[in-house]
Specification:
By secondary structure, the chain is α+β, with helices and mostly antiparallel strands. It contains 21 helices and 5 strands. The chain has a 5-stranded mixed beta sheet with strand order 2-3-1-4-5, with helices on both faces. Helix 3 runs antiparallel to helix 4, helix 5 runs antiparallel to helix 6 and helix 12 packs antiparallel against helix 14. The longest helix is centred in the middle third of the chain and has 36 residues. The radius of gyration is 31 Å and the shape is elongated.
Length: 479
């Protein structure tokens, strides 16, 4: 009872401790039936925490105990074993176990569980790339669930059929099946499967290029789950890909980082669980083959490395403006706060400058937005060449740029900014279009000039507009 309470209250660490205590008591009292139940309980706890190699070890213990007694393994254990193999992508092994579970459930006279194991056969065939074989099994299971009035299983099976039709390339059938599943969830059925249904639908929509549906469903799949569980059910990785495809790089990076953290937590849990299980085996003389765990750990490490490489790429993308190759506003905001803190801590000078291309709307109106983009890109290249390695050049937004100049006084900043202004004005813009001329208005503020409570950006922005009012194509550093 304590194990089940901890499990349903979301305390897997406590549930695991109670499961081990139950297992220890079963071995100390030489109760074979209790051993089977305790191993199965521990497998359920491990499986719920995505510790699949450990769950597999425990389920095989149940099978071996049944074999020692000369009794068949229960259908539920065979079905659970199949699910563990499925999670490890050992599809053919999983199918064999699900088929054995079908036979055992049929012998036990449990029609509902025959359908459940049949659905598992079908889904695994689909995941193995054999939808033509898997879809009839799913259809058969659906028919049984509908006849028995098992609405929750009907909703889940519709979603599995949606994925199957998607793999088979039947887009309209896939969408229709997913929408039926969601319709049942909206009517209160299949609540226990709702997160998975939305995850499957969202992942399919992402692969089909339907970003709005993908983002809607993947966000809904993650909604209401704590960060750890979001990582464990696997929603954060496709959500990150959807956000990246939609251009929301900062959100994509955040989701990917949370996914990597969740995978790290799973790996730590797996190591702790494997160690504890091995200690128990040594203490009680129970043999254990750790090869499955070692193989899975190596595969997890390989996948985590690929995820970290993608996170690094997203990190770079989230800091860079696509058009100009300069740093973007998000990165400038972060760097500005760091440089202000450093300058104040060490008493060093700091200047922030804002630069706005003059009459840029007229450039777009006269020459078109495509050429306007080329002007922005060339202006960004001029800024990048003009500043020092220690400076930061960024696109502030639209036709506005920013320069962050650490360890720079107002006097030195004025010389550098005047050079930038002249470089822009004297650039051969006619290469892009005959008659094209581009100038820039510049406003700059030094950290030590601010009034109490005044933001450096406010001062720089005010001075940039002062340069505009004074006739454009000029630099204002003070006043």
């Amino acid at each position: 009872r304590a194990l089940k309470a901890a499990f349903y209250l979301g305390r897997p660490d406590v549930a695991r401790r109670h499961a081990f205590e139950g297992l220890r008591a079963a071995y100390e009292h030489l109760d074979r039936a209790a051993r089977r139940e305790a191993h199965n309980d521990l497998a359920v706890v491990f499986g719920a925490q995505a510790l699949f190699p450990e769950a597999l070890e425990q389920l095989w213990r149940v099978v071996h105990l049944c074999e020692e007694e000369g009794s068949p393994a229960p259908g539920s254990v065979l079905n659970n074993l199949g699910n563990v193999y499925l999670q490890q992508e050992r599809h053919d092994d999983a199918i064999t176990l699900f088929q054995r579970a079908v036979e055992r459930f049929r012998a036990e006279g449990d029609e509902a569980f025959v359908a459940l194991a049949t659905a598992n056969v079908g889904r695994t065939q689909v995941l193995a790339g054999r939808p033509a074989i898997g879809i009839p099994s799913l259809d058969a299971a659906l028919e049984t669930f509908e006849r028995l009035g098992r609405s929750d299983d009907v909703a889940a099976t519709h979603a599995k059929l949606g994925h199957a039709h998607g793999v088979a390339g039947a887009r309209s059938r896939a969408r229709r099946a997913f929408e039926r599943a969601l319709g049942m969830v909206d009517r209160g059925y299949g609540k226990g499967f709702a997160h998975e249904i939305r995850l499957w639908f969202g992942t399919w929509a992402l692969e089909e290029g339907d970003l709005s549906t993908a983002l809607e469903q993947l966000r809904a799949a993650a909604d209401g789950l704590d960060p750890e569980m979001q990582g464990r059910i696997g929603v954060l990785e496709p959500l990150s890909r959807a956000l990246e495809a939609d251009g929301r790089l900062a959100e994509a990076l955040d989701a990917l980082r949370r996914h990597v953290r969740a995978q790290d937590a799973i790996r730590r849990d797996r190591a702790e669980a494997a160690t504890r299980a091995r200690l128990f085996e040594l203490e009680h003389g129970v043999g254990g083959d750790q090869e499955v765990a070692r193989t899975h750990a190596a595969e997890l490490e390989r996948r985590n490395l690929a995820l970290r490489e993608r996170a690094d790429r997203l990190e770079r993308l989230s800091q860079v403006d696509d058009l100009t190759g300069l740093r973007n506003r998000r990165d400038l905001d972060a760097r500005l706060q760091e440089e202000i803190a450093r300058a104040e801590r060490h008493g060093r000078p700091l200047v922030l400058a804002l630069l706005d291309l003059d009459d840029f709307k007229e450039v777009n109106d006269r020459f078109g937005h495509a050429l306007g983009d080329r002007v922005l890109a060339e202006a960004g290249a001029i800024l990048k060449r003009a500043v020092r390695e220690t400076d930061l050049a960024a696109r502030w937004g639209g036709e506005e740029f920013a320069l962050l100049l650490p360890d720079t006084t107002s006097f030195d900043a004025h010389r550098l900014l005047e050079r930038v202004r002249v470089l822009v004005a004297e650039h051969d813009w006619s290469r892009l279009a005959a008659g094209l001329e581009v100038t820039v208005s510049v406003g700059a503020a030094a950290l030590d000039e601010r009034a109490p409570g005044e933001e450096l950006l406010e001062v720089a922005d005010r001075r940039m507009y002062a340069a505009k009012r004074a006739g454009r194509n000029r630099t204002v550093v003070a006043g």
